[in-house]
């Protein structure tokens, strides 16, 4: 197998390592396997960015990677973060391909990003970065080509600016260019909560797999952004006991159960969990070793590693973040008997409701929140059942089973389409 120095990074190597292991297990055709290891299209841009004081014009880098165009338009988020690079974006695009295939939506995987810290930007600066980046990639995105969405460091407002910039260039409003935008512009009423809510829809099925009663099950959530916050709220609504949540300032812990809505209100008013009065404040890293039934890593990648996987006491890990578990930690947790619902299944609620939003924008016919949530629950629970059935049939873990399902669907499509010319 030829090395791919263009995309070399820890995250890309992890993504390819996962793929290689499963491709070998499946006996995947070498030609198809080699084609799926690398993205089909990659765009790297650099552009000038001026700060509000206009004393400095900074050159910053942006990326858009489309891993697979075989299945239909590509789909994936845009992240603003200081660690963004081509390898990271390529890995995330690859995982998005498997994710869309697992839940059966007609997209290939894509991802994008700008290497910048959004926390240091004013609203005006954030808008300038978004609009300029949109123009830099405008020829590779489109409602029938590649549809962006929010990711780490971006939100509904960023998507609104992206949609407006694209629409100004085209000459008319194009709501279907992005998903995760405000409902006033054609966004889904349930998109913001979709990833966290979809993740928790899987709790009863996953709990049954480990003989755990989900009612009253103790849950710790690492991360309190869109995914973690709404996973915690959904968990509480489902009668689980959320005892800890965390953000970059630290973690709050109450063994009797947190008032999740009060913690969310505190963050809305104070930006961080630090100082929240109705719980013990602990180090962020300590959340992984809490004596809980369910651990939900819902923040960033590579937080469960070889140096802390041994501390995990949870019976069940449901991955809300992308690639929160390294290959080494994955092996360690599996040896301990921890049941892992992998990210490419667990956090697929976001892309599923993004698909719903795109369909509604294209058709110009909008669904109620109850319709959206009901269809999300149906797709997520069916996907879990399909993956769990493969895991039992093949005697493999859930991550391997999910990859088998996703890779098999993509490989079948590749083989049917053939090679041009």
CATH superfamily of the largest domain: Leucine Dehydrogenase, chain A, domain 1
Strand count: 12
Show unreliable segments: none
Question: What's the average pLDDT?
Answer: 91
What is the number of helices? Answer: 14
In angstroms, what is the radius of gyration? Answer: 21 Å
Q: SSE order in H/E notation?
A: HHEEEHEHEHHHEHEEHEEEHEHHHH
The structural domain count equals: 2
CATH architecture of the largest domain: 3-Layer(aba) Sandwich
> Structural class of the helix and strand makeup?
alpha/beta
How would you sum up this structure, described in words?
The protein is an alpha/beta fold and 421 residues long. The protein folds into 2 domains: 5-174, Rossmann fold, CATH 3.40.50.10860; 194-346, Rossmann fold. Helices cover 44% and strands 16% of the residues. The chain is built from 14 helices and 12 strands. It has helices at 10-26, 30-36, 86-103, 123-136, 156-170, 191-201, 203-209, 226-237, 260-270, 327-335, 343-346, 349-363, 369-394, 398-417; strands at 41-50, 57-66, 74-80, 108-114, 146-150, 218-222, 241-247, 250-253, 280-282, 294-297, 316-318, 339-341. Strands 9-8-7-6-10-11-12 form a 7-stranded mixed beta sheet. A 5-stranded mixed beta sheet has the order 1-2-4-3-5. α4 packs across α5 (156-170), α6 packs across α12 and α6 (191-201) packs parallel to α13. The radius of gyration is 21 Å and the shape is globular.
